[in-house]
Structure formats: structure tokens, C-alpha cells
Design a protein that fits this description.
By secondary structure, the protein is α/β, with parallel strands linked by helices. The chain has two domains: about 5-125, 3-Layer(aba) Sandwich (Rossmann fold); about 125-270 and about 275-285 and about 315-340, Dihydrodipicolinate Reductase, domain 2 (2-Layer Sandwich), CATH 3.30.360. The protein is about 35% helix and about 25% strand. An eight-stranded mixed sheet has the order 13-12-11-7-10-9-8-14, with helices on one face. Helix 4 packs parallel to helix 5 (about 100-115) and helix 5 runs antiparallel to helix 12 (about 315-335). The N and C termini lie far apart (about 45 Å).
Length: about 350
């Protein structure tokens, strides 16, 4: 019988609910504590899940029964909490992004290695069956040479959103709209297309007064393979979310994904490869449903990695790679120059 790993969740915001539901639905995982600086919120979560509440995450880290820390706090705080957790003898699973500053992300990776603690970064979009199908098609050379790719994110984040989640409006806590809304999708581009050669980008401010993060941006990403990818993102769409799509144009086929998180096939025109039924694959997936159904699989993979049965799906180095690209996009937008990778 597999060992049961005991979890402490730091940060009791909206995303924490998805993590806790995943933990509750895995036999060899157990939630024992939560922490949040908002005392009432911590109490509400603790009472709802019948676990202990802490109001300072450092006190939670002293709990000897906890094996793994899940980090669900504002983006910029992830590395510091993760470093403290590793030093306290805990494994670390953090929500994306790994952090907002490269040097802090690198320090988190270094400390986890030093203390021999596992580090995972949640990138569950890779697990969407439609994305898996594209990965397989590329690896089997079904599309031939990939000529170009596009990610388009056209969402709405209105005043009520920033009132409900005020830290998202602060550049020092959030890191920027690119970091919050496009982190998963830059990871997908890198996972599918390989290493990045250069980026060039432009951005514009948010249309809501007082919101420090950008409202929209566009980037051209050149991959070492020669593929050119374009990224268009905005949170200033009128009234409601409009789309989130991924398009690949290859010598032998075209694929376009849409849906809530690249989980629906809008177009599949590939030579000698009929359109697969993604709904059948979704039904077979060990998921929980809802907006982010694949957190459970992320946890199962992480636990298998703790038992040395497999490698972590997306580890600290994977988290760092997407952060490097996002930093380059910001640098290009700020300087007006193309940013090249070594």
C-alpha cells in the first residue's frame, strides 16, 4: 500500500478549492492544515474541510506531520514560501507561475535541490486530451514541419474582478497580466515547439484606472526550430471572455484548439489523420470536471514522483523556462528591441 502524504495548503483563495478537492479525491493524500493571513478566510476553509487553521504560514511549516506544501498565494510570494518550506523539510507544489522574478525562481530551485525536496509547478493545461493529441501528432511527425503557431487570449477582467482579487491589480504582487493569463499557454508553446530563439513585443496599459498591470499585449516568438509563433492577449474585452485559442500550421496539416483551456478541437485537418473524438478521451481522463479538471492528475503524478515511480510532470526548471520567456517579452516591450536567447 502506498504511503499517505499529508498536505498543508497555504493561501485560501479561489484556486485553493481546486487543490483541496484534488487532495480529497486521492487515497494516498490527506489534507491536515490550511493557512491564510486573512483569519476569517482561514477559519472558513479549516471548518469546511475539518482541518487545522494557521494564520501565519511559518507556523504551519512547523507542523511535523505535514509532508507537502501547496502554495496558492499571490504570484510574487511563491518563491519565498517555497524556500521556507524546503528548509523546513517539506516538499513543494506551487501554483503557476513559479514566481515573478527569475533570480527568486532560481533560488527556489537551488534550495529544493540542496534540501533534497521535490518541487512541482502546476501546469495542468498540458493534461488536456486535446493538447495531448497535438503533442503526439508532432512527435509522430503527422504535421510535418511546423511553420507557425498562434495563441490568442481575449478575456474580460472588469472592475469587480480587481475589487474581488485586488492583488491582481498590483504589479509587485501579480507580476503582470502576461504572467497571470498566459503562463500556461507559453508553457504549451514551449512544450510543443521546443526552445525559444528570440522575442519581440509591444504592450498597452489597462483601461481601468488604478490597475497597474498591462491590459493587452502582442508578441512574436521565434523558436530555434524556425517556427514563428504569435501571442495576442488581453483582459480588456467588452463584457465577457471572448476566446482562448491555439492554432498550429504545419506542412501536412492545420489544428486549432479552443474551449475553456484548449480542451476542444475547433479544426483538425491533418493529412492521413482523421479528427479524433476528444470527448471520448475526456470521459476516460481521471479528472474532476469543472474549469480546471486536471489538478487531480497533477497531484497523482507528484505523489508518484515522491515515491520515485516517475518524474514530475512540470518541475521547477519547466516553470523557470516559461518565466524566462515572459521576462523577455516584458523586456522587449519596455525597450522596443528584439530580445535574443543564448
Amino acid at each position: 500500500m502506498d504511503r499517505v502524504y499529508k498536505f498543508g495548503v497555504i493561501g485560501c483563495g479561489k484556486v485553493a478549492e481546486r487543490h483541496i478537492e484534488a487532495i480529497k479525491n486521492i487515497p494516498n493524500a490527506s489534507l491536515v492544515a490550511v493557512a491564510d493571513i486573512d483569519i476569517e478566510r482561514a477559519k472558513k476553509f479549516a471548518n469546511g474541510y475539518n482541518v487545522k487553521a494557521y494564520y501565519d504560514y511559518k507556523e504551519l511549516l512547523k507542523d511535523p506531520q505535514i509532508d507537502v506544501i501547496t502554495i496558492c498565494t499571490p504570484n510574487s510570494t511563491h518563491p519565498k514560501i517555497g524556500i521556507d518550506a524546503a528548509k523546513a523539510g517539506k516538499h513543494v507544489l506551487t501554483e503557476k507561475p513559479i514566481g515573478t522574478k527569475l533570480e527568486e525562481a532560481e533560488e527556489l530551485i537551488r534550495v529544493c535541490k540542496k534540501y533534497n525536496k521535490k518541487l512541482g509547478v502546476v501546469k495542468q493545461v498540458r493534461l488536456n486530451p486535446a493538447v495531448q493529441l497535438i503533442k503526439d501528432a508532432i512527435e509522430e511527425d503527422k504535421l510535418g514541419r511546423i511553420l507557425s503557431a498562434n495563441v490568442t487570449i481575449r478575456w474580460n477582467r472588469n472592475e469587480n474582478y480587481y475589487k474581488t482579487f485586488p492583488w491582481h491589480s498590483k504589479k509587485d504582487l501579480d507580476g503582470g497580466t502576461l504572467v497571470t493569463v498566459a503562463s500556461h499557454y507559453i508553457d504549451i508553446l514551449q512544450w510543443l515547439l521546443g526552445g525559444v530563439k528570440s522575442v519581440v513585443a509591444k504592450m498597452r496599459p489597462h483601461i481601468i484606472n488604478g490597475v497597474e498591470v498591462e491590459g493587452l499585449g502582442s508578441a512574436i516568438i521565434e523558436f530555434k526550430s524556425g517556427t514563428l509563433a504569435t501571442l495576442e492577449y488581453t483582459v480588456c474585452v467588452y463584457k465577457r471572455n471572448l476566446e482562448g485559442t491555439l492554432t498550429l500550421l504545419g506542412e501536412k496539416g492545420t489544428i486549432k484548439l479552443g474551449g475553456q483551456a484548449f480542451d476542444e478541437i475547433e479544426l483538425w485537418d491533418v493529412e492521413g489523420y482523421p479528427k479524433p473524438d476528444v470527448e471520448i478521451l475526456k470521459a476516460k481522463a481521471d479528472s474532476l470536471g469543472g474549469m480546471s479538471p486536471y489538478h487531480k492528475i497533477v497531484y497523482e503524478n507528484f505523489l508518484d514522483a515522491l515515491d520515485n515511480k516517475t518524474s514530475i510532470l512540470t518541475d521547477g526548471e519547466d516553470g523557470k523556462k516559461s518565466l524566462e520567456v515572459m521576462h523577455a517579452i516584458y523586456k522587449s516591450a519596455e525597450t522596443g528591441k528584439e530580445v535574443e536567447f543564448l
